Request: fold
Amino acid sequence: MAFYFDEPARTFNEYLLVPGYSSSECIPEKVSLKTPLVKHKKGEEPAISLNIPMVSAIMQAVSDDKMAIALATQGGLSFIYGSQTVEDEAAMVARVKSHKAGFVVSDANLSPETTLGEVLELREATGHSTMPVTEDGTAAGKLLGIVTERDYRLSRMGLEEKVATFMTPREKLIVAPADTSLREANDIIWDHKLNSLPLVNADDSLAYLVFRKDYDSHKENPLEMLDAEKRYMVGAGINTRDYAERVPALVEAGADVLCIDSSEGYSDWQRFTLEWIREHYGNTVKVGAGNVVDREGFRFLAKHGADFIKIGIGGGSICITREQKGIGRGQATAVIDVARARDEWFEETGEYIPIVSDGGIVYDHHITLALAMGSDYVMLGRYFARFDESPSNRVTVNGSYMKEYWGEGSSRARNWQRYDLGGTKKKMAFEEGVDSYVPYAGSLKDNVDTTLSKVKSTMCNCGALSIPELQDKAKLTVVSSTSITEGGAHDVMLKDKSPYVGNTIG
Ligand code: IMP
Reply:
């Protein structure tokens, strides 16, 4: 006979935290959000810990090298999307590992033939106002000049005008050699009152741009995720098909941790992948698995050696899996069930396997709820897709800035491996995700700062200065549908679109 779960599966929106005693010592400045990224034995330190409990989703519209650098700077970690060729994914990982903080490889480059109209379009799409001009229009071409807002005057110039005629040419630029240190570059920037300094190689090809603001922000980021050689840390997605080629290439490129990216993780395909990695790399390669939504799924992946386990089926904002296939589970219930299984496993084996709530975070407080329910960190797609640093272009829709955001199970992503159930099938028979817009929200740093200040504030309301303490002390209550209405502004007429109403969904 079929098995029935006794309780209905619930979502984050159906819960609230009931405050506990907050002592005068319990203030947001003292809260630590440090959390284990991978499994560890009782009493031992995990090989890698996150400094903030946030990782970015393994998706084309979310996690490329630029996102990875921005998030690692703030103390989190990105998993570079695996739905690209092995070479391209490894190259993204390598770019993160070779990135020197404060040294920017420009992603808005012009050639002398680019028109003013194209400059404006590129500015709109990337948000960058400083654009190097190189002979071939690439980030590594011979430097010919720079275009900033000060070089064009829209009222006086035609959109057809070529960059060559209005750029600040190379001979008027102050540049420095590629091996200049950040401190030296910063001194030059200040001495000459510059906003940016191009660093060039001996053949005058462009190496980096250093911006005045980047040097400052570098000093302001004490939570940066750095490896032993002071390089940014980065994760990478793999699939259950081509791991024999993909894993070695990603390890070679310097990936710090891998994650099997699949819509459903309780399968032999994940077991084969984990076994292959353990056979070839022992425990030196860290690899997470998932997604699962119950105790059995957790125990299966734990038994086969996953370093962390991801939770969630059908809760993602772009996800239509539940509609298409009728599988899934309310995210809050899934997290609570898997957290119990994780604790039970720890009691039995002395092995603590971090769990990650993946998908379905709509409001900032959902992060706090996920952590309180036992998640060690959360994976977010839509949240990060809205920022400057996500891979998609910014577009204007009905007068508002938007970013494109598409599911890995949409026909746009063509990530058939993620939904693969074996056999010889090489393409998706139906979609499990949609292509959409999300409201543009600005820079990752500003948004993450705001989100985490809310998380810390709530933690203090619960009397917790750390995530384990929150998990220990949290009192959670299910809310009735009428009290959900009571939770927002109600029975008042809003003067304008308040920033306090659904602020993370825009
Ligand atoms: P979000 O944070 O609610 O946008 O959810 C992101 C998560 O949704 C990802 O980390 C994946 O687990 C999941 N996901 C990504 N693409 C798809 C899709 O096309 N269909 C179903 N789930 C998806």
Notes: The chain has 16 helices and 24 strands. The domain at 12-100+226-479 is CATH 3.20.20.70 (TIM Barrel). Residues 57, 59, 263, 312, 316-319, 321, 358-361, 379-383, 407-410, 432-433 surround inosinic acid (CB under 6 Å).
